[in-house]
Amino acid sequence: MSHNQVVRELYQALSTGDVAGVLARLDPDVVVDEPLALPYGGTHHGRDVFVQSILGVMMGHAIVEITDFDVYEGGSGVIGRLTGTLTAHTTGEKLPITMIELHEVDGDTVRRIDVFLKNPEELAAFYARSAAGAVRV
């Protein structure tokens, strides 16, 4: 399988909510580096941590809809561009997002993902508003 195809399958699984498909394309020791401004920012090690610490936080705050993705093979790895919309569970606010990711692929799995967001501060503020809108008991 080509490196492009590995990332395409990862993105397809993400866009349909297929967690098993996502896990199948991530190396067990995957390293994911997210912008520090985000609630899940920093460097994460392992696919279970990816699912809990990144996807879990994102989906805990909002409905995640991936509207489009492109994949390009470059000299340093596979470059992916994701676009989508987040809809806050608590407020209904919608936020368009664009992410660029650099993937290091080994065989049929992704070993490393470096994530670059067009608007990390705006996304962090969205999460803060979403959390503030939660009903507290």
Automatic annotation (TrEMBL):
Residues 7-111 form the SnoaL-like domain. Pfam families: SnoaL_2. Transmembrane segments: none annotated. It comes from the Bacteria. This is SnoaL-like domain-containing protein. The lineage of its organism: Bacteria, Bacillati, Actinomycetota, Actinomycetes, Micromonosporales.
